[in-house]
Write a structure and sequence with these properties.
The protein is an alpha+beta fold. The protein contains five helices and twelve strands. The strands form four sheets. It has a four-stranded mixed sheet with strand order 7-3-1-9, with no helix packed on it. A four-stranded mixed sheet has the order 2-10-8-5, with no helix packed on it. Strand 11 and strand 12 form a beta hairpin. It is globular. The N terminus is likely disordered.
Length: about 270
């Protein structure tokens, strides 16, 4: 009797699975869509606006460097293709000082970039170059290159939140794009701002002199993700060196180290576990 019951149950499950399979629709949407891919986010729910913002400064590079290339990932939604498919980007207006094509970056539709702006055959992800130029004006200002995915005959836009990116370009010291980025620690999220306060150009210059590090995005990323004891040592070193510098300034009859707007340089922390 038990065997009969088990066979009946198995038959019922088979019928249920078969019915479910019949209800499934075959994917036949001919429209392929494109999104920027962010390694920090596994889904649109994980995406944060700061992931779409980055910065670059030529000040860290050799004086002979006239151009540099950054790379961004795009990912397709839909069927793969047996041939390479062109992809396109376009600049977006912004309230900031806008980067100018041919001056601050190589135009996205420049012939020299055409062979790189493709989704390779049988692939769903590609890396696109953003070529930036070292114009002399960048020594006095920061420009912003805001850009988005441009629909074409092969790809339409995907998720709204994954369509636009922004890049700040300068040849001066500038706030690293991950200064306020939250890193998961002790069940919470903490950033450089939590550890050593608000960013400042004078503060940045002092940090470089005190540690010999450039304090660009990659260093900050490795510092916070690395050995926490070393990270706390570096932050404590900054506080000790600042105290020494201010003491020496006082002996010379000078005021404490300040930003251009008069804000005292400080490495105070609001980090609490």
């Amino acid at each position: 009797m038990k065997k009969i019951a088990n066979r009946a149950l198995a038959g019922l499950l088979l019928l249920t699975v078969t019915a479910c399979e019949k209800d499934l629709k075959v994917f036949d949407d001919p429209v392929c869509r494109l999104n920027f891919h962010y390694r920090e986010a596994r889904s649109t729910a994980d995406f944060k606006p700061q992931y779409a913002q980055s910065s670059y400064s030529f000040i860290y590079k050799s004086d002979q460097l006239e151009r540099d290339t950054l790379w961004v990932d795009v990912e397709s939604m839909g069927k793969l293709a047996d041939e390479d498919r062109p992809v396109a980007l376009e600049q977006v207006d912004t309230t900031a000082v806008m980067a100018q094509p041919g001056v601050h970056y190589v135009a996205f539709d420049a012939p020299e970039l055409a062979k790189y702006y493709v989704m390779p055959a049988r692939k769903a992800r590609a890396r696109l170059p953003i070529v930036i130029l070292r114009d002399p004006s960048l020594k006095q200002k920061t420009v912003v290159l805001k850009y988005r995915i441009k629909p074409n005959a092969f790809f339409q836009n995907g998720y709204d939140v994954l369509q636009t990116r922004s890049l700040s370009i300068t040849d001066m010291l500038a706030e690293p794009s991950n200064w306020t980025k939250g890193y998961p620690m002790y069940g919470k999220y903490y950033s450089m701002r939590n550890f050593i306060g608000a960013y400042g150009v004078v503060k940045h210059r002092f940090m470089i002199g005190a540690t010999g590090q450039k304090w660009a995005d990659d260093f900050i990323d490795k510092l916070i993700k690395g050995d926490s004891n070393y990270m706390y040592y570096i932050f404590d070193k900054l506080r000790r060196e600042l105290a020494k510098a201010n003491e020496a300034r006082q002996e010379q009859g000078l005021d404490e180290l300040k930003e251009a707007d008069g804000t005292p340089v400080s490495f105070e922390s609001n980090f609490n576990i």
